[in-house]
Design brief:
About 65% of the residues lie in helices and about 0% in strands. The longest helix has about 50 residues, at about 200-250. It has two domains: about 1-95, no CATH class; about 105-299, no CATH class. The chain is mostly helical. The model has no long low-confidence stretch (mean pLDDT about 90). The protein is built from ten helices and no strands. The radius of gyration is 21 Å and the shape is globular. Bound molecules: zinc ion. Zinc ion binds next to loops.
Length: about 300
Amino acid sequence: MFLFWWTVMGLFVGSFLNVAIHRLPLEGESVAKPVFSRCPKCLHRLRWYDNIPVVSWLWLGAKCRDCKSPIAIRYPLVELLTAGLWFLAAWKGGSERPWLVLVWVIVLSGLVVATFVDFDHFEIPDEVSIGGMVLAPLVSLLVPSLHEHSHLAQALAGGGGVTRIAALETCLLGMALGGGILWGIGWLGSKLYGVDAMGFGDVKLMAAGGGLIGPWGVVAALMIAAVAGSVAGLAGMLRFLCESRRRAHARGRRDRWGRSIRIARLAGRYIPFGPYLALGIAIQLLYREHGAFLGFFPW
Ligand SMILES: [Zn+2]
């Protein structure tokens, strides 16, 4: 029952996160205004029975009831992803630690919003990043078991259970390291290449994440993010490469491979880093006892 209710709540929160992802980057709209969910195309208010996570999307055949414009499959996918993450958190935390589970699901939901807004707009909403920087020290004090697997927190507590003060110290060190490393990379990138390699949104997100996973969690999360980001970047360039070859072929032009690769490298150069940071933070949040890469580098 415990798992079931957390998962169902995750489904409905996922529906709300879709609204947040859509509205947070827009001027003049907030998650609370307008109160009711609307079709983004025809602005018709959604009836309650057209707003049930996943079910309504299937029932309506992926179309708005009023204007018949297609509803992207991403809406039900975000709902399922959120429900899955809430299930994982409840399963991992267990019914005897509801407060830890609550902190985890709040953080994971914030990471879902950061991920999709960054994919869409190449920015991370301050509501998530600065909100997380405020939340991290608070929840470290209130729920010190958040840092129970941190070797640093254990050492700061002098053996035994992690104390509130040790948890807060671990949090602040994690924020400093997480924000510091990304700020440093950005500074170095702008000195070496004269471009902004790292957005300030990433710096703030990693500062918030560092406060929740501690300094060693930051190192592990950055390794995960670097690997995942590189794989995604290469996949993106490969897609651009195939696309540009296909277009040239369709026009009856025979491009040299060198030219195609140059175009793909330029087109695929900008990928958002936030989603991969969020992935690393999420893994470290739930599986910190296994260290980086789920135990490949155990510390
Ligand atoms: Zn509509």
